Amino acid sequence: MMKLPPLRIYALAYLVFLYAPIVLLPIFAFNDGTIIAFPLKGFTTEWFAQMFHNDTLGRALKNSLIIAVSSAVMATCFGIFAARAGSRFNFPGKGGIIGLIMLPLVLPEIIVAVSLLVVLLGMGVTLSIFTVMLGHILICTPYAIAILNTAFNSLDRSLEEAAYDLGESKLSTFRLITLPLVMPGLISSFLISFTISLDEFIIAFFLAGNEPTLPTYIFSQLRFPKQIPMIMALGTCLVLASIVLLTIAEYFRRRGIAKTGGKDTGGFL
Amino acid sequence: MTTRPTMIEFRDVHKYYGDYHALRGITAQIRAGEFFSLLGPSGCGKTTLLRTIAGFEDISSGAVLIDGKDMSLVPANKRPTNMVFQSYAIFPHLSVEQNVAFGLRRDTRPQAEKDKMVAEALEMVGLKGYGARAAHALSGGQRQRVALARALILKPKVLLLDEPLSALDKKMREQMQVELIKLQRQVGITFVLVTHDQEEALVMSDRIAVMFEGEIAQLADPETLYRRPNSRRVADFIGVMNFLPAKVLSEANGHIQVEAAGLGSFDIEAQQAPGEITGGEASVGFRPETLTILYEGQTAQDRETAGTIDEVVYYGDMTYYDVKLDGVEAPVRISMRNVFGRPVLDVGTRTRVAWSPGALVLFR
Lengths: 269, 364
Hints:
Number of strands of chain A: 0
CATH architecture of the largest domain in chain B: 3-Layer(aba) Sandwich
Radius of gyration of chain A: 22 Å
CATH topology of the largest domain in chain B: Rossmann fold
CATH architecture of chain A: Orthogonal Bundle
Structural class of chain A: mainly alpha
CATH superfamily of the largest domain in chain B: P-loop containing nucleotide triphosphate hydrolases
Strand order of the largest sheet of chain B: 6-7-8-3-9-10
Distance between the termini of chain A: 32 Å
CATH class of chain A: Mainly Alpha
Number of domains of chain A: 1
Number of helices of chain A: 11
Largest sheet of chain B: 6 strands, mixed
Largest sheet of chain A: none
Low-confidence stretches of chain A: none
Oligomer: heterodimer
CATH superfamily of chain A: MetI-like
Helix content of chain B: 10-25%
Helix content of chain A: over 70%
Radius of gyration of chain B: 25 Å
Number of helices of chain B: 8
CATH topology of chain A: MetI-like fold
């Protein structure tokens, strides 16, 4: 007989609450009916077909991918500079500077979005996917730094000194020693930033102008009940993609730790 | 030993970290082919000094010369030195072979010759056949050997070792000490070792520089350092030394007449007193093994003093006795070898202690 102590019940209830809605996504994505309600009618892939033939959705997806890839690359590059500086050098005001860079992590996104909008409009910048990119780089960089900090801090400084001592230049040392050893960190930083940017709504909503991104497109379609099954199909794809991305990120993070013989001290999964 | 040419020369080297004066006017010479140790407590500047040789640390003033050349404008990757790091700094993403061959990347020799050099280097450190292993899968001692092979493959003029044995357990450490000495004799390269372990320095070095607070307190061969430390501080840092308060009575013709608590008055030679002795308060120091507890029927060859055994510490091969000499409050430590048939004495036993003025050192 299985015992159900209160804490176990709590844990189960928590998981049901967390994942039941997500489980519903694929169920209704394959349901042959426009109304999202039980009982289920029949199996169909029509919603997926509809999704693939929707031009606006295609454009939104393309925009979102461009924004997400660019933001992830830029955030990771900025992250490298900040994490490297933070872990290797001491300079006046270091704590304050790092603190300010990390602040967007806790700043309400709507504040970031509104202030960016005010500034950009004041400067006369036309809203486009480029302005969304700026906003996303801003919010992704702290995450990138947090991940890369771990990567750079766990790198023994004498490894770089050893390579330099053995005749390599500072640049080739970075390429031959530093980069391969922080590569798992770079990959997870890229993937996390990519995921954050891809499903970010508020900044995209404020700064995209007339251009749709995936989240703003989904939001706009919710007004039309007959579109909802297609959104369910889209949601199913997005959930799958997120799971795949996070798994890859975690795989590289763990592999990086195993490769350097270190101890696992946390992570996302 | 014939005097060898100078390999490394420090000329009044100073190093500041902000307000902190890490190196305070180091002037010293390290000879070609010698095993030289920088010994001192943590924070004394020994690692900083080693890193000024490697080029990882700029100096604030003065000069560091290697093989007669001023190194001030030579970056670390162009210096004829290689380093074995405290953490070994084995590149974890490369194999043992790739680690050892790392310094040959810019070498223009054909690959076959490089491979041969790597194999020889691995054999030299006792890791023949380990080339294909992943570096992170090695034990501490093996990493140490890879680090040695990697540093020696470039045939540097100077090999720098930053506390290379501190991460090993006692047995392994003692084994590696012997291996390092042999290796150094075999390759003939100047070794400069940083250590805080005085025993390690005594065992391995041709000469030792004892450092305190950014200065070299004494630079000498191990025996001189042990037998004639030039200050109480050095004497205290290296091994165990007993101190007794003393008074200088007179000095003449290279002889000093001293009166020490518990020992009475006696003559020593001037070279037993490092530094300037101008009379007045002083202290005499002696090592635990220079005193002997006399058993029934034994007589002292030189001098003897009565005392009471205050504490007994049994070490197996040795016994340490803390003995209160008559008229002295603080006990002195005496070490006795436990030879067959010699009983270990009990606390409280009255005893006679044999000593000789020639084994004493007089400190101001």
